[in-house]
Specification:
6-stranded antiparallel beta sheet; DUF2252; single chain; alpha+beta; 16% strand; two-stranded antiparallel sheet; globular; 2 domains
């Protein structure tokens, strides 16, 4: 078994065994999916690179790649396109964020066998947009009025979507009751004891948390399967019903918070967060233009969770879309560069992060964009080599013990 597989298994050892087998299976799909599931391997390399250009320390989402931007409804009920995953968020050199995104472009295009020159053009466009926005010193945002192309399509679809459509996709009626649909491949049944504990916990949270929709009551809960890197973390989907309005329902996602996988490779002091969920939510609120609806934290059985409303539509740049629409990607890649820089500008000067002037002074310097392109090219090749070794180890049974776990039809018990 390769050293990389040892590290992958060690990193995932505290996750739910019944879900980890699904994570490893997902990571076999292609090199891009493998990259999404191994953020810790990427930063282990980046932290040791002597060729990495120095950059100011700022807030980063940590796991930035092409599929971690998306459209969503904010807590002001308007829709936006922005960074949308903050599980790994920390204070770090701002170029660590940039090189992870650029590497994801190169891996995606290589996996899809799209011309290498096209990939380099896209990567260069992202870097140009990122640098130009930092130099401008003003954080910007995207909504349906200001967006174009694929991004605009995402936002207009999110604007038209409704909670009723989401309920139809996620629920079914049993007699007079509306319940979460466990025939959905994303939903897993829970053992009765755990389900009862979760319902009691959420009822208490709804009654006592100032950020909660207090006029709702819990009707059902399931384990929710989503993402790639976060597969194996405890994650639950609650169906809530209004006690004031007839047939008014709400879906809440509650996701376990782990420490950032980047922390072991950083010597930069971090704030003393109350817990890991508080870290994630606090940095997300700093970096996003508008936070996702009902974004908050909870503690269940001594473990910390991030809570937010499940979105009716949460469009991301799916891998398949890259293949089908890559000639239309220039606008969305330009948007991503602007949004990455805007998130860093928006959170600048907080808890020791670089100021806007420091970010601008850095961006004006020459040479760093070419250096990032070179490093990303090297990293993309290394990730693809790791993916090949992972595939071989998987076939040789290195992950066998974690493959032989519960079937989809069996309930989850943490």
């Amino acid at each position: 078994m390769s050293e990389r597989s040892d590290k992958i298994k060690a990193f995932n050892k505290n996750r739910l065994p019944s879900i980890i087998r699904l994570k490893y299976s997902a990571m076999r799909e292609n090199a891009f999916r493998f990259y999404r599931g191994t953020c810790h391997l990427f930063y282990e390399r980046i932290a040791s690179l002597k060729t990495m250009p120095k950059s100011p320390v700022g807030w980063i989402s940590g796991d930035l790649h092409l599929e971690n931007f998306g459209s969503y409804k904010g807590d002001n009920k308007l829709v936006y396109f922005d960074l949308n995953d903050f599980d790994e968020a920390v204070k770090a050199p701002v170029l660590w964020e940039v090189v992870r995104l650029v590497t994801s472009i190169l891996i995606a295009f290589q996996t899809l066998e799209i011309d290498g020159e096209q990939a380099m053009n896209m990567a260069a466009l992202f870097l140009k947009s990122y640098g130009t926005t930092l130099i401008g010193g003003k954080a910007m945002d995207l909504d349906p009025r200001t967006s174009r192309g694929i991004t605009g399509d995402f936002l207009r679809r999110a604007e038209r979507s409704s909670a009723d459509e989401l309920l139809q996709k996620r629920t079914l009626r049993k007699g007079r009751k509306l319940l979460l649909d466990t025939s959905d491949e994303r939903h897993f049944k829970l053992k009765k004891e755990l389900k009862s504990e979760l319902i009691s916990h959420m009822e208490n949270w709804l009654s006592n948390n100032s950020d909660s929709p207090y006029n709702y009551r819990v009707k059902d809960v399931v384990y929710r399967l989503a993402g790639t890197g976060s597969l194996g973390q405890k994650r639950y989907l609650f169906l809530l019903k209004s006690i004031r309005k007839k047939d008014r329902y709400l879906l809440l996602d509650m996701k376990q918070a782990y420490s950032s996988s980047i922390i072991p490779y950083l010597d930069i002091p971090q704030p003393k967060w109350e817990n890991e969920a508080q870290r994630i939510v606090s940095i997300q609120k700093r970096m996003q233009h508008v936070s996702a609806s009902l974004l908050s934290t909870a503690t269940f059985k001594g473990e910390d969770y991030v809570v937010q409303e499940l979105q009716p539509v949460k469009d991301t740049l799916k891998f398949k879309l890259i293949k089908e629409e890559y000639r239309k990607l220039y606008q969305v890649i330009d948007d991503m560069g602007m949004l990455t820089a805007s998130a860093q500008l928006r959170s600048s000067g907080m808890d020791g992060s670089a100021t806007k002037d420091e970010l601008k002074a850095f961006a004006i310097k020459t040479g760093w964009q070419e250096q990032i392109l070179n490093i990303a090219t090297e990293q993309a090749a290394l990730v693809c080599a790791d993916y090949g070794a992972f595939q071989q180890d998987y076939r040789n049974g290195a992950y066998e013990n974690q493959q032989k776990n519960k079937k989809k039809t069996e309930p989850i018990l943490d």
